[in-house]
Amino acid sequence: MQSPHQDPGFTVRLADPDAGGHDAGSAPAGSGRATAPRGFRQRRRNRHGRGLRGELMLPTLPGYRTRSDRFDDFVLDSAERLHDIWGKPLDGVRFAVDEIPPGLEQLVADRTAAPMGAYSPATPDEGPVITLYRRVVEQACGSREELQDLVHDVVVEYTAEMLGVPPESLDPVYRRRY
Predict the structure, then answer these.
(1) What is the CB neighbour count within 10 angstroms for residue 168?
(2) Residue 96 bridge partners (DSSP)
(3) Entry pTM
(4) To the nearest whole number, what is the mean pLDDT of the chain?
């Protein structure tokens, strides 16, 4: 068996419990029988039979959701708000989140500002896609409230580009929360 992160010349051979013979090192010295190596969970000592007692982070604590999860929620909230306002024109539009824009290294080398999002028009196979770049948007904000406002503004801007209308007419609170 070979792990994708290991050197290609390094392999680990596991004992086959159904095979008649046994590999060297798979059975204790002098035991005369083959034993399969045990996994971590089987090797781990569970002295009192309780196992893991519960989740390490409770859902009510702030650390339960990651920054990425919160960002996804902000995008979803903004998209739902726009869908509630506009309805049918936004049917079939997908909102996506990527970490960084493609070609970021070249943008940095050219000293060009990185885009906060992108709009991909509809193709015969799928509908239009509005993509936000999480790291770029997060870098432009200082607090969580600013992040939520900026995410909404970026969603509004690219949705307005898709519909061909000014962003101010798309959502009445666009750029008014600062």
Answers:
(1) 12
(2) 131
(3) 0.64
(4) 76
